[in-house]
Amino acid sequence: MMRCLSLASALTLAVTASAGLASPALAADGHGGMASKASDAHAPLFASEMERAREFVDGMMAGGVVVPQPKDPGGGYTHEQHKRNFRAIYQGGQLFEITGDERYRDYVRDVLLEYADLYPTLGEHPAKANQYSGRIFWQVLNDAMWLVHAVQGYGNIRDTLSDAERQKIDDQVFRPAAHFLSVESVETFDRIHNHATWATAGVGMTGYLLGDEDMVERALFGSDKSGEAGFIRQTEQLFSPDGYYTEGPYYQRFALLPFLVFGNAIEKNDPGRAIFEHRDGILLKALRTTIQLSYRGYFFPFNDAIRDKSLRTVELYEGIAIAYAQTRDPALLSVADFQGRTVLTPDGALVARDLAAGKAEPFPFRSLLLTDGPEGDQGAVAVLRQGEANAEGEPATVLIAKNSSQGMGHGHFDKLAWQMYDNGNEIVRDYGAARFLNIEAKRGGRYLPENTSWAKSSVAHNALVVDETSHFDGNGKYADKYWPTQTYFSDAEGLQVSSGMIDSAYPGVSMKRTLVMPSIPGLEEPLVIDLVHASSDASHQYDLPLHYSGHIMEYDFEAERFVEGRPVLGSDNGYQHIWVDAQGALDDGKGALTWILDGQFYTYRFAANGPVTAILGESGANDPEFNLRREPMIILRARRDGEVAFASLVETHGSYDGAAEQTLDSRSLVADLTHKRVGQMDIVQLTLKSGQRYAVAISYNPDPDATHSAQIDGETISWDGYAGVIALATEE
Amino acid sequence: MMRCLSLASALTLAVTASAGLASPALAADGHGGMASKASDAHAPLFASEMERAREFVDGMMAGGVVVPQPKDPGGGYTHEQHKRNFRAIYQGGQLFEITGDERYRDYVRDVLLEYADLYPTLGEHPAKANQYSGRIFWQVLNDAMWLVHAVQGYGNIRDTLSDAERQKIDDQVFRPAAHFLSVESVETFDRIHNHATWATAGVGMTGYLLGDEDMVERALFGSDKSGEAGFIRQTEQLFSPDGYYTEGPYYQRFALLPFLVFGNAIEKNDPGRAIFEHRDGILLKALRTTIQLSYRGYFFPFNDAIRDKSLRTVELYEGIAIAYAQTRDPALLSVADFQGRTVLTPDGALVARDLAAGKAEPFPFRSLLLTDGPEGDQGAVAVLRQGEANAEGEPATVLIAKNSSQGMGHGHFDKLAWQMYDNGNEIVRDYGAARFLNIEAKRGGRYLPENTSWAKSSVAHNALVVDETSHFDGNGKYADKYWPTQTYFSDAEGLQVSSGMIDSAYPGVSMKRTLVMPSIPGLEEPLVIDLVHASSDASHQYDLPLHYSGHIMEYDFEAERFVEGRPVLGSDNGYQHIWVDAQGALDDGKGALTWILDGQFYTYRFAANGPVTAILGESGANDPEFNLRREPMIILRARRDGEVAFASLVETHGSYDGAAEQTLDSRSLVADLTHKRVGQMDIVQLTLKSGQRYAVAISYNPDPDATHSAQIDGETISWDGYAGVIALATEE
């Protein structure tokens, strides 16, 4: 069974074998075909992946076959052991496939034979939390993940088993597991939800392996095979036409694995279905979109995101390998290079080989608009990038305007919120989830109470808050029915723009936000102009928070400092978690705050349409278990009848170099910011300390050929299209 | 004048030329001798340095010769312009030396001719802050720095000038500047202080260049040439025999430049003096010691240190080049590699060439004891390293016991304090200085009021505080007269130990501290045991703070949480800056606190000899200008008549991997910690959750052959020497 090849021919074979072996669930009749047993016959990335797998599987083998009676919930012993087992079945099968070493085959077989004894005896899980109990695990989702992995490992050894062994494992593990997911758990199976994607993937791949057409059909088209549910429908409903997954990047990454792995199995077993071309290539588009939703490898953390999730995650190792094999897009190789990981499949071998051959090209990170919703009509996420690209092809600065829909239960109440990254750091922040994943001391690693009381609340975001309540009054079910409208988007160099509006977040209040990244001579990029309007027939209090990262250098307004005892800002809707450091009443509505982060200065400068109270605060009040991070914010508070308007500027300036003891432009280069409305148009005027003056004017008319003009302080300015930057007469 | 060489011969010549050109202040008669004019004839590090210098000097040349009338203090225009000028003279001279391009020569000459017109007209500086006024700058120190740099640039061009030019610059710039420093400013010149080192270096190098033996003698032996002052005396008085500079690593780095640059000039001009062998090679030893006082390139930030100072600093670019040329020690090349910089001297060319030739070897970071004081009898700094070394040869963990003397005006009141780094991070912290260097908004970049009120105070350190006052009552002049005794040090693998004591920090209170890094089977390294004793005839309150970095996971004691308003801990001596988050009275004196930092868990576990109050706090109260960083601490507070004892443990455990969603050992592996005194011996017992039990026993007898034994709970333990780790019977 084991073939000894020379190094050169092994590499050749690894590619030649690719077609025959590419569906892990449908093993060809040869094993050990990808290379000789010596891992040095592989490209470095693949070889190190083999080492890692050997270390893990050999360790499992040394511990013997351990298939315990299911007992514990997530994190407990039996839960973790069954997770280890499915990884060992999966990777053991791969190692057998690659090396032909029968020890791996025997181990995978023995584990599965143990499951064959156990599985038929299982009923509801003793630790089930609701009606959706798994068999091996406490919830159906984990059983589906088990099946997706185990069926692939089984596929690698099945044709080498005796008929009796094969029969026993087919009939006592995989058929009943597929039956459990697709028939007994039909409520989960037929949902349009990522849990159902895992289930259909497991069932469908089992169907392909066992040659059970009925199973495959149910996986593809739902339990009644009508196409109203099932995998194909999921590809049509769970992603927007731009490949955006409504829960946001953190969950998009998680959902991606079953989509791509099952997609790959469909492609290999049923190529006529052209699954990777389905819906304009949505599966591969979703993968690229996932990558676009990251900065320096880390996903934008909006909604219930764990902030340390990056492109270095197993879902994307699989995804990149599959997508590269489909497309040979050299940009995907640079993602694999960043990951430093791949998978033990022929696709992974191809990635490793082409990466070693120097074929990688930078990933084309760029500005883009990602519509939300199956039809692309439920709002959008706008991503504006600019600045010099680093070695990975990623520009220094990115601004994200979150004008998307709620995104179900993991959504946050942050309509029209935004974020900004620059110089490798998150400058205008999103808190992400209040959760310490898998850390027992923090409520078993589950979502913390502060996830609801702080992280989801509107005031925890860079979002306009009315009357100290959250959007949609913090009601998720209600929130799922409404979304903002993306009214304009432009990625034009030197004047990128995103506009959004929503009138359903608060009864009787209409809110609009326009974010502009203009190039202004004399000011460094990145520069962001933020225009927020809200109007209502009623009188309201409007709070506009900016959550920033850095240490305060100075602010230019008078404020009372609470140095011996900090009051708490409010009592509910997140306000109970805010300490007040300082508070100042600004009659003219104008002020500026400068902070430093990582050798770079930033100034937030604002001008409101009337008096505001500026509040410097910090998260962390009413946090009995020390669950919250303590992070600074500034809140602009205005009470208005009718309309409120906040114009503001986030200005990047100067630098601090501790090594060279050199500091440049530590103070803002802007002398003044003013904002005027002329009819329905907004005119923001900047006066630089150099005396140069500029207007940034917004017509809100998307017609690029329409010409607009306005009178400000006796000067007439004019521009074409939605927005313009106009140089004004220089001040004396 | 310009020689065109092939690439190969240029490299050869660069080395050959080294002897003749190595004294920048004594240029040989050839210029452009180091290489062809094409910078690509140089090794990459040197070539990029040339590019950097060209960019700077070309920019200066484009701006013309600008030598303004002195007017401004530090940071102001004339100050910065004269700084730029001395850099341009220095680097312009080097560029002329290397390339032979006469534009550089002409520019340096023209600038110096301008100074020749200006200098004789100068009197006291209009912005002088005290009696030590400079001429070009507001303080003497800056004038000395000007001379050290300018004389080197002048040395590179002097032999190419006309006699008239040379005479004018000699007589109207360098002679009067040397006279100003060594005669008019004799009080500074004759000090034993780093300011005097700059002055003697400038004067001595000027003496060598002008062939003025009298000037050289004064520089070497003081204004009266008695040897009571001057450079030689400074090398004997300012460093300890181990090459430790009493102000600490941050200032050691600063002091190093004139020591090594003038040392190098002495070596070249007066080789018989064997300056680099003087006092057992103290100058090169001081350089190596400076490097040892760093972690991941950053200097240990004790005393008034700016925390972002690293090995990447101009003083050490010069230092490494000079030391490498003297020693050819390949370990210094890896420091240059880390720096990514060198200097435009033959020594720098040699570093760049040997680095490019792959000759670098890891720097031997290790455990070591650095005595303080000219005779090595004023305390010490103990550095304990352990763990796997990274690519640069640096172990993962370092513990620093600061048992050194006060270190003059920049010293902090932190006797017997300690720090720990692990996994790339500072785990047990030192605040460093409260200062934003060169940032105008922060009081012009000067030391902030909080530097005195917080950063220097004892409670801001990991130091024992008696009755809420700082050591030596915060009196620096008084503090300079006393220091701890380093009573023991061992770098034995698996059981490293540092012990220190002091009885002068508080009247009538004797304090001892022993820090141990033992290897305990079943516990991950690094593990630190900290034993603090104090005794007094009077009743006192003892506070033991631990300033840590990370987010609280859990603590195992009852504590009142101040979630709606945090009290301030005290009113003076640093206590006014501490917010209280929680406070608990622990009758048995025992407790544990776990935090996470960067994927690593740490538990601080303590056992005191009686009740303590545990205070969880944070810096940042009473900070009206937002000058302080907000950082967590735990303070153990005990009131005692007679003796107080705190035994504690910092345990590194487990890991959190967000990418793999894998958490290991997030909870402490220790079940219990107890501490007993048996006569004068200390016995710390650890019970692990596995049931294993260990004793760490300290006899305080340095004789390695002495055998000790003690009875604890019916068990007899015995060990040899100062300390031992003893396995006890396993618990059921």
Can you tag this structure with a few keywords?
disordered N terminus, 32% helix, Glycosyltransferase, 5-stranded antiparallel β-sheet, 732 residues, homodimer, Beta-galactosidase, Chain A, domain 5, alpha+beta, 12-stranded antiparallel β-sheet
Q: Can you characterise this structure?
A:
2 copies of one chain form a homodimer. Chain A is an alpha+beta fold. The first copy, chain A, has 3 domains: 344 residues, Chondroitin AC/alginate lyase (Glycosyltransferase, Alpha/alpha barrel), CATH 1.50.10; 301 residues, Beta-galactosidase, Chain A, domain 5; 64 residues. Chain A has 17 helices and 27 strands. In chain A, strands 8, 9, 10, 11, 12, 13, 14, 15, 16, 17, 18 and 19 form a 12-stranded antiparallel sheet that branches. Chain A has a 5-stranded antiparallel sheet with strand order 3-4-5-6-7, with no helix packed on it. A 4-stranded antiparallel sheet of chain A has the order 22-23-24-27, with no helix packed on it. In chain A, helix 3 packs antiparallel against helix 4. The longest helix of chain A has 23 residues. The first copy, chain A, is elongated, with a radius of gyration of 28 Å. Chain A starts with 6 loop residues before the first helix and ends with a strand. Chains A and B meet through strand 13 of A and strand 13 of B.
